[in-house]
Amino acid sequence: MYTKPQGYVPTLGAYVRSTVPLAGAGAVFAAVTCASTSLRGKDDKLNYFLGGSAAGGIIGVAARTFRVGVPVAAFLGLSAILYKDSKDNGWKLFPGVTHRVGSFDHVSYDFTLQKSHK
């Protein structure tokens, strides 16, 4: 928060100004991708590119400048193509993470009876 808002209401406003456009971009990505898939009758990478580009456009509108919107739209469109390719061909850009309940060193504090004792 580089603006350093003073008080609770300006701080809440700063959070809203940053999170609402991102949530809107996610919703627009899903809506445009689904609509283009339905209209075109094909589930291919072009639909994901259109959705990513539309999401980038939402971020550009929130920033109120083409200097942000056009590059972000291109980047998100290309990223969406990579995501669709990873879904189609079964590869992962980032390694999988196993989620566990507890703290970072949960193994040290695991007192269940089912734990294997070595």
UniProtKB/TrEMBL annotation:
Principal subcellular localization: mitochondrion
Keyword Phosphoprotein: no
Membrane topology value: Multi-pass membrane protein
Localization, UniProt: Mitochondrion inner membrane
GO cellular component terms given for this protein: mitochondrial inner membrane; respiratory chain complex I
This protein's record includes keyword Lipid metabolism: no
One GO biological process term: mitochondrial electron transport, NADH to ubiquinone
Family assignment from sequence similarity: Belongs to the complex I NDUFA11 subunit family.
Sorted UniProt keywords: Membrane, Mitochondrion, Mitochondrion inner membrane, Transmembrane, Transmembrane helix
UniProt protein name: NADH dehydrogenase [ubiquinone] 1 alpha subcomplex subunit 11
